Amino acid sequence: MKARSALLLGSLSAALIAFALTSPRVVAADKVDPAADAKAFQNFFFQKFPAVKHEDFVNGPYSMNEDMKRQWQEKEEFPPYEFALDAGKEMFATPFKNGKSYADCFPNGGIGIRQTYPYFDEKEGKVVTLELALNRCREANGEAPYSYVKDEMASLTAYMAFTSRGKPMDIRIPDDPRALAAYENGKRYFYTRRGQLNFSCASCHVQSPGERIRAEILAPALGILNAMPIYRSEWSGMGTISRRFVTCNSQTRAVPLEPQADEYRDVEYFVSYVANGLPISGPGARP
Amino acid sequence: MKQSLPLAMLLALLLTLGLAPAARAANEAEFKAAYSAAEAASKEAAGMRNQWTVTVSALAAAKKAADGGDFDRATAASKEAEALAKASIVQATSEKEAWKAMEIR
Q1: For chain B, which residues make up each domain, given as ranges?
Q2: Which helix or strand (DSSP H or E) is residue A34 part of?
Q3: Contact A194/B105, CB-based, under 8 Å?
Q4: Is residue A282 assigned to a domain?
Q5: What are phi and psi of A121, to 5 degrees?
Q6: Is the pLDDT reported for residue B14 higher than 70?
Q7: Which chain A residues are Cβ-neighbours of B104 within 8 angstroms?
Q8: Touching check for A268 and chain B: CB below 8 Å?
Q9: In this predicted structure, what is the pLDDT of residue B1?
Q10: Catalytic residues of A, which ones?
Q11: How far apart are CA B105 and CA B102, in angstroms?
């Protein structure tokens, strides 16, 4: 009888110890931990592509394929985004009708700050992207907002990215539950399958970077936004981050959301945050 | 015998013409029911922020066929739209949890 009691007590103790050891892990698995996410995210790509220099991931498909890289390096001597860069520089310096300019809307006069966007605005309780901040600046100064997907917006962001080239992405997540919720929402959007083709962002850019999808070589998700905006031969022109998200959705046969929808702002926050430390390389050029 | 053939054809034509409006009304009613079901499912998918482009196209094709009086085609397109919308709802519902399986940890 004594032996039976001892066995029962022992089993109970073992079960309690096992529960005590496992339950914090269960809680931890659901806890939002952006720093741990970013570390795991970067390690995944560093291990998957050990030959690629870490700072080279921002060059998208060119970091995955030597032939393409050589072609791109030659193209960079006369980059196709140059006209947008010149236009953006001029637009940035041209005052609004009220005499103020973009420089008045941004810290450091808007120069060398692209790596800090998007940021979480604690006053608004939402993520603010660079494209959104530029249009808000225009509207606050009595100007009509630009289209989020191309032309003037792409030129302006091209110039601002250029002034930040080489600076490491530096996205902050303040100690605010709303910021963590926005980050988590962006992460969920990134991994969620949608459209008739049942693809998530991760289907292409985590599971298959370096692989071909029809004629294109897929870029890795790590650092994918560091090169934005981009000139795409497929578009015969420049495109912003908004354009990239909208196009990706359409390609999976999902109806795109409106540019700068909360989901797009949040997914930009997530993808940018996990690329912290990698250099800004925008504006970029892609096939 | 020679006289009965044209007579039979005439009778068949009269019968067809007489039944056509009734058949058309039945087809139109079937289309309306199918389109309304497809529209409801499509609205639900859009509410979940998970509308598919193919659903929108199928709905548009149904409307176009109905406007042209081709209710058979319109009904078939409506049914296709409803099936697509329902699939997108299933996708959005399952992905509420399933996305976690793809996460890099």
Answers
A1: 26-97
A2: helix A34-48
A3: no
A4: yes
A5: -90, 110
A6: no
A7: 37, 40-41, 44, 206
A8: no
A9: 47
A10: 248
A11: 9
